[in-house]
Design a protein that fits this description.
Blueprint (H helix, E strand, L loop, with lengths): L13 H4 L12 H7 L2 H14 L3 H7 L6 H17 L14 H10 L20
Helix pairs in contact: 3-4, 3-5
Bound molecules: zinc ion.
The site of zinc ion (ZN) has 7 residues, from loops.
Length: 129
């Protein structure tokens, strides 16, 4: 077990710093919302991942009719990595570590309670009149 895992906020990463515009945290930027939290955009990434992957289980999970929250989370992390990398000069071998604030933001969006799927569950409650 490695103990060098640190809780790091996005502002501690040089390559993420430049994405912050005037904000203190990348998760509150308009770009983050647009790129990482918009499921229409994530769906495009999902399609690309389905086409690229050679892993049958991964392909099956990604192409499921009801995509699991844990799959969406995985797609978000991939998307975030692509986004950050697209602003990083290539060939430097920079490894993208996902900052804690980003992980928390994504986890909060795709909550998993007791492993139950919470996504498109039909609600029995009445709409407010
Ligand atoms: Zn942050």
């Amino acid at each position: 077990m490695s103990n060098d895992f640190k809780c790091m906020c996005c502002s501690e990463f040089d390559n993420i710093k430049q994405l912050l515009d005037s904000k203190k945290c990348v998760t509150v930027t308009t770009s983050f919302e647009k790129i990482i939290l918009d499921e229409e955009i994530l769906n495009i990434t999902r399609q690309q991942m389905i086409m690229k992957t050679k892993n049958k289980l991964k392909k099956k999970q990604l192409s499921a009719l009801e995509v699991l929250n844990k799959t969406w989370k995985y797609i978000c992390y991939v998307q975030f990595t692509h986004w950050v990398n697209s602003w990083t000069s290539l060939g430097k071998g920079i490894r993208v570590v996902i900052p804690t604030c980003v992980i928390n933001k994504i986890r909060n969006k795709y909550l998993e309670k007791d492993g139950l799927y919470m996504g498109f569950k039909k609600s029995n409650t009445h709409l407010p009149s």
